[in-house]
Amino acid sequence: MPASQLADVKGRTVSYLRLSVTDHCNLRCIYCDRQMRHRLTHFDVLRYEEMLDLIGMAEEMGIRKVRLTGGEPFARRDFMEFVERAAARFPELTLRITTNGTLLAPNAARLATAGVDRVNISLDTLNPATFARVTGQDLYAEVRRGIEACINAGLGVKINAVALRGVNDHELAGFLDLARRLPLDVRFIEYMPMGGADWKPEQVWSAQDILAEAKALAELTPLARDDADAGPAQMYAIGGGAGRFGLITPLSNHFCGTCNRLRITSGGELRTCLFSDRTYRLRPALRHKKLGLPAVARIVRLALKHKPVGAELLAARRAGQGVSATAMSAIGG
User: For residue 3, what pLDDT is reported?
Assistant: First the structure.
């Protein structure tokens, strides 16, 4: 292991950083941020230059993949310019984007030119009316245009759908058909207990139930999980299909033992585990004239020693309660 490689006390190495560029979003999804909570002020949000410095520090510490998230990253002014600068400054890094897709279509070709090779798009339904109910906005057509634009630009596309009983549990056939017709991955994610009281356990649609239904609708062949691009997903080839189907199982079959990621929020707070509300403030040290990046690096290394096992936090929660009180939009996914 290189001397600079990040590792926690359990021997888990970290090579993946999720960096939120904004906590603002143009949607209000029911599982993410239905409440109009207080947003960060302009001063409290990291500047793009500061984010570039953090990415550089992360690369020196062994990070090999950076995913830019939000909120909705394209909702921040000059986001595309930031992507281009990051891609040019760190050509050895794998740079990817997670987006709700509503502002994606005009930027797809530019992303491909910059060197971004893959985009994750959150899309929980293929029904425009359900989309408006889940997100609070009638923008389904814009997301579909974004998906098409990405495919036409040669970008890899992953569709991430939060599996919700009573919302999209009747749409599995439609999502499988989408993956049959188009060269993209469709991945269902078990509904995670985030946001405290907003989480509704009765809406959990388990991966076991999804897989049983999917096998009745399509010929699925499990793929080896040694594909770094698969991440935490168990992927399946679809017989006669151009794309693939996958399941992400943070509740029923956790992947905490191989967790390789850290998160930095748009306000400069480090989160070592999605299911923990414990954060480490990086912004004060980053902006301090005498401290700066060396101090930030020390904070990251010390914080990593206390990186928890999310499954243990899940097991310790009270029945029916969320494990994290923080809205997903404030974390960055």
Answer: 44
E strands, 219-286, where?
220-222, 234-238, 244-248, 261-264, 269-271, 280-281
* 260 inside domain: yes
State how far Cα 145 lies from the chain centre. 21
Q: How many residues does the chain have?
A: 333
Q: Are 154 and 110 in contact (CB under 8 A)?
A: no
Out of 6-10, 66-70, 301-305, give the one with best mean pLDDT. Answer: 66-70
- Angle 264-266-271 from CA coordinates, rounded to 5°: 25
* Tokens coding 25: 């979003």
Query: Comparing 1-10, 148-157, 223-232, 319-328, which segment has the lowest mean pLDDT?
Result: 319-328
pLDDT at position 186 over 60: yes
Q: What is the CATH number of the domain that holds 254?
A: 3.20.20.70
Overall number of domains in the chain:
1
Q: Map residue 264 onto helix, strand or coil.
A: strand
Instruction: Give CA separation, 63 vs 242, 260, 299, 332, in Å.
Output: 32, 9, 16, 18
Per the domain annotation, does 271 fall within a domain?
yes
| 148, part of any domain | yes
Cα distances (angstroms) measured from residue 265 to each of 85, 102, 106: 20, 21, 26
Prediction pTM value: 0.90
- How many Cα atoms are found within 13 Å in the side-chain-facing hemisphere of 242? 13
What's the token pair of residue 258? 């191989």
Please tell me the distance from the alpha carbon of residue 235 to that of residue 230, in angstroms, as a whole number: 7
Instruction: Measure the CA–CA gap between 242 and 245, rounded to whole angstroms.
Output: 10
Q: What is the gyration radius of the CA atoms in the chain, in angstroms?
A: 19
Rounded distance between C-alpha atoms, residue 275 and residue 194, angstroms: 7
Provide the pLDDT for residue 277. Answer: 77
Question: Within a domain: residue 314?
Answer: yes
Distance CA 95, CA 90 (A): 9
State which residues form the domain around 32: 14-331
Residue 1's pLDDT is: 38
